Amino acid sequence: MGQDPRAKPPRHDRLLNVLHRRKQNWLKAVVRRFTNNLADAEDLEQDVHATTLVPGRLENVRNLQKYLYRVAKNRASRKAREAKRLQPLDEGLNESRVAGDNPSGDADLESLLTDALAKLTPREREVLMLHASTEELTYDDIAQRIGISEHAVEVHLCEAKRKVTQIFSSSGQRKAQR
User: Fold this and answer.
1) How far apart are CA 175 and CA 98, in angstroms?
2) Would the pLDDT of 144 be above 50?
3) 71 and 99 in contact (C-beta within 8 Å)?
4) Can you tell me the distance from the alpha carbon of 82 to that of 91, in angstroms, rounded to the nearest whole number?
5) What local confidence, expressed as pLDDT, does residue 94 receive?
6) CA distances from 38 to 32, 33, 42, 51, 62 (A)
7) What stretches of 70-135 adopt beta strand conformation (E)?
8) What mean pLDDT, rounded, does the chain reach?
9) Structural domains in the chain plus CATH codes
10) What is the CA radius of gyration of the chain?
């Protein structure tokens, strides 16, 4: 039938409860150093604690504090890489735009974009267009769709962003010199 609510939790669970209470404040301080906002810090802290819930995960751990620190650092690094990878294309371009007194700025922008896309290789253009599509495709989705590796998608996208940003930047410098 059901478990007796007065029964003691298994030894593993009791040890984890003690662990969480003892290391909670320390871990909070550590994860806040790795993140820039409180919500991310709380998510990261919960994620680190969740890794300790897997039975057998801590059996070979000699120094719990070092283990928790390493897990927190790895999770924070992964989150930072994902955020950088998912950075919108126009984020780097906004800084290079120069506001002019030309009311037909859209035509200039369209012309710049057409020039920028023309300078890309066909593969870079394909990857960039898929990445910028409204389907919100991941790198893996793009790789599967066009038959290349996920790493190749990253390389093509990075190169495409670099070229487009360079064209927009040089255009802004020319306008500023006028």
Assistant:
1) 7
2) yes
3) no
4) 16
5) 45
6) 7, 10, 6, 20, 30
7) none
8) 75
9) 11-85 (1.10.1740), 104-177 (1.10.10.10)
10) 25
